[in-house]
Write a structure and sequence with these properties.
mainly alpha; 2 helices; 54 residues; 59% helix; globular; 0% strand; single chain
Length: 54
Amino acid sequence: MNQDKLLYADDAYEIQGAIFEVYKEIGCGFLEAVYQECLEKEFVMQDIPFEAQS
């Protein structure tokens, strides 16, 4: 088994894509809570399952 491969490469790729979409839309300089809320919305839009932080 090649140890350089990610166990969940496809999932990681989708999550990274969602993160880049959020960054592309709102940019930098916001508090973490803003990014968290936007990323949750992006996950819903891209149908990526997640569990929201409470």
